[in-house]
Design goal:
There is one protein chain. Helices cover about 70% and strands about 10% of the residues. It has about 130 residues and is mostly helical. It has a domain of about 90 residues: Arc Repressor Mutant, subunit A. It has a 3-stranded antiparallel beta sheet.
């Protein structure tokens, strides 16, 4: 992974894993085929337009299959989609396992930043006092 991502597959991975709606829909479809309205109800906050656009993009990328019948439209993961789901679940497990370390790193960073602000504020106050005495 030393070079920049340039292949189409790499672009799809970056776009899909960076999009919360794609990740959520892939996760829901990992439970089995779902009707369009079932997906809309189960993914909190997604609009019908965004759901439609995201499903269309996932279908175009080969991650899902759209199955239309006269009265309903269902979606299911393809083999590619199941492969991506497995990687997303691995990434989610990594995040859960490393949550304490990430929290500790953030706390340490925030503490260093707080100390730097205090130091720079104290230094500028001292300088302004000295300049007013001149």
């Amino acid at each position: 992974m030393a070079g920049a991502m340039t292949g189409l597959g790499e672009q799809v991975v970056r776009r899909r894993t960076g999009d919360k709606w794609s990740c959520m829909l892939i996760g829901k479809l990992g439970e089995g085929p779902k009707h369009f309205n079932e997906l809309r109800r189960s993914v909190h906050g997604i609009s019908q337009r965004i759901l439609t656009l995201t499903l269309r993009g996932l279908e175009r990328d080969g991650m899902i299959r759209r199955m239309a019948s006269p009265h309903r439209v269902d979606y299911e993961l393809t083999e590619l989609g199941r492969g991506l789901l497995a990687q997303l679940l691995t990434l989610r497990a990594w995040a859960a396992n490393h949550d304490p370390a990430i929290r500790a790193a953030r706390e340490q960073f925030d503490e260093r930043q707080r100390r730097l602000r205090e130091t720079s504020t104290a230094g500028s106050t001292g300088r302004s006092l000295l300049s007013s005495l001149r």
